[in-house]
Amino acid sequence: MTFKAPDSLAEQIAHHLAERIIRGELKERERIQEQKVTQALNVSRGSVREALLILERRHLIVILPRRGAQVTELTAHNVKSLYALVMELYIVLGNAVAVSWRNEADLAPLLAVQRQLQASAAREDIDAFVENSFDVMRAAFPFANNPYLQETLENLLPAISRTYHLALARRKSEMSQFLNTFASLLQAVLARNAEQVRSVLLAYGQRNCTLVLAAMAER
Question: Per-residue pLDDT tens for 12-60?
């Protein structure tokens, strides 16, 4: 595997391992051994250790005394807790867009993401669709201008992405439901309707959480 700038080596290793966890290639409670990763990727052990700390901060692994790193377990409690927090943060972000946009040209980045989502859904490309869904969040960050909100959501992104993959892998039809939700959200933003922004996002979060829990039960 070849790593390139601009990301640090540790960030690139973390991204590589995160993708494997998110796609389910590394299973829950599976150990991640530093030496094996070092040899497989031809990188230093120090960089791998730094990458594991990044993954722990992003809630994809836990590092246990004398037992090393292992993939975090997806439990019903963890999923419910994750969605309860993330949806409230999404509401803050959505309301920031609703309050801050001045003309429809300001919303062009969000409309561009909407088109990308539609194209990914048409191809039934789950990986691209999940990535595009988080591009919505990133397009909204400038409206909020809140580095703490951005950092918190970016650190939670891998964990929520893991749940999206789990649900969509079993129910690809949910991509069309997400598109409908996003369209409703854009309408609420255009109307500067904070109550509607909250209503749309809470309903979306509840539906997604239910789907993830159902997918977990089917494993």
Answer: 999 999 999 998 899 999 999 999 999 999 999 999 999 999 999 999 9
Please report the pLDDT score of residue 170 as a whole number: 76
Residues 131, 174, 123: CA angle, nearest 5 degrees: 60
User: Where on the phi/psi map is residue 154: left (φ > 0), alpha (ψ -120 to 50), or beta?
Assistant: alpha
118 and 188 both lie in a single domain = yes
Last residue of a domain, one of 40, 71, 102: 71
Average pLDDT, the chain: 92
Q: Per residue in 89-99, pLDDT tens?
A: 999 999 999 99
Q: Which of 71, 90, 115 is a domain's end point?
A: 71
Q: What is the pLDDT of residues 161-199, one digit of tens each?
A: 999 888 887 787 888 999 999 999 999 999 999 999 999
- CB-based contacts of 166: which residues, under 8 Å, 6+ apart? 24, 74, 212, 215, 216
- pTM exceeds 0.85, yes or no: yes
Number of domains into which the chain is organized: 2
Expressed as residue numbers, the domain containing 127 is 76-218
